[in-house]
Amino acid sequence: LETKFVCANTLIGLEKQKQLSLSDSVLESLKEELKEVYKRFFRVKNREEKKKLEEKAKKKRQEIKDTLKKLGFPNETIEKIANFNIFSQTEKADWFDPEWMFGVEDGFDIVIGNPPYVRQEKIKTLKPVLKNQGYNTFVSTADLYVYFYEKGYQLLKEKGVLSFITSNKWMRAKYGENLRKFLKEKTSIIEIVDFGGYQVFSQTVDTCIVIFRKEKPPKDWTFKYCTTPSDIENPIGYIKENWQEMKQEKLSDNAWTLAEDKVLALKEKIEKIGKPLKDWDVKIYYGIKTGFNEAFIIDTETRDRILANCKTEEERKRTEEIIKPVLRGRDIERWRYEWAGLWLIGTFPALNLNIDDYPALKEYLKSFGERLNQDGKPGHRKKTNNKWFETQDNIAYYPEFEKEKIVWNRITEEIVFSYVYANYYVLDSTFMITGKN
Fold first, then answer.
1. CA–CA separation, 353 and 56 (whole Å)
2. pTM of the predicted structure, to 2 decimals
3. Residues contacting 318, CB < 8 A, separation 6+
4. Interval 106-121: pLDDT, tens
5. What are residue 245's DSSP bridge partners?
């Protein structure tokens, strides 16, 4: 199967000649001859015969290279086509083109896969390249897997089928809006399985399976869907027994809600008379991540001891100002919260504190030794540019914690909201909303 597998960057295509047609008779003839060599290679078992075919293919690629030069193809494209040796077991390419690699010009019948889940922060250098590829789904904040959906669509022949398992964030996140619109308008969705909180993989990414056909959806097109609970033991059995149907036109560009008609009707009614959260003058923030709560979350007794160890009144005041009452997710109940008497040592990097101005606090934090180092070493906090005594996250929005807010717990079976007075800080197990009103 040497000529059937390639290691390549699927998302990046070849830059082709824009003025002339690829249907030049000489070029087409050479391509057909090369394709025939690959077909023969697939059937031959004799090693000597294979070597002869490899040499013949090499000569054909050189002839193609010369022809492409005459046709005015970009030099970089010419070199990539001419130098790509499909017979090599270690060959890899930073591009992918089914026509030049496999002789497939009208697309594949099936595209199936589990695209890599890489967050957008880690593909900064790739973003300009992806943008230049002309993806309709391109958004600077989109995670990498988003582009595989559109690339998979491009690689299919008309009425071909794609099946992917990916993160399900695109179904609701802002960065997935272009993808949602693309799939709704250009494909006939066959099935969607939304796994919600059920962990298909060992990673904590929530996943979904999408199967669609490359054709515009007929009028009143209906697809099957299933949303699984997080605690099921047999997900495949559950899915088989719990398929529901939904009209594709009911999918919204804002977010895909998989639900029966009566639920969608209620949702539409709420949206019609209600005011979307994005139209309110509010801000939504993540709670504080310290990287090591055992050191930065203290009880009242420890707080009082640190303050008592301050040598001067000025030091005591400085130290007291950065130790704040804090709420955890478990402290948030429906409508109310119950403070557990815990405090947060707020050494946020955004404050640019000098730890030597807080001798008593420094002495306390030093008692944890190298565990507070943010160097990513085993047993230490993850690697950041922050100092050893600082919290893990920058927390540039720390003034927002001084305001009144609405807080809800992030990791829970049932989301509950509570009004929280000013000056209470919250941990990363919660989210909060702040605003003028």
1. 70
2. 0.69
3. 357, 358
4. 999 999 999 988 888 8
5. 224
